[in-house]
Amino acid sequence: MGNEREIETRLAERFAFLYVHVQFICRSAGDRRLLQIDFSGVGHRMTIAGLRRLCDDVSSEAGGALYGTVNLDYSGDVMSVEMMVELE
Length: 88
Known about the structure:
The protein is α+β, with helices and mostly antiparallel strands. Helix content is 31%, strand content 43%. A four-stranded antiparallel beta sheet has the order 1-2-4-3. A hairpin with an 8-residue loop joins strand 1 (19-25) and strand 2. The radius of gyration is 13 Å and the shape is globular.
């Protein structure tokens, strides 16, 4: 799994993201089983199915499975994504 910076580096290299931020989220004391991942750099059009595949691939690379809601934000031509991953 690794720490936040290692995961950010791995995701940035694997998916060529322009920006990646990873943060552990604790549901209870000491429970670090959720990751919040924000990224941008997906600068081309994609279908909802393509976005789902990308989020599943990012989740798998981070060591878990997609969890909850995926949030999209568009600024100009750049799409940014916020998602949660439940670690396995």
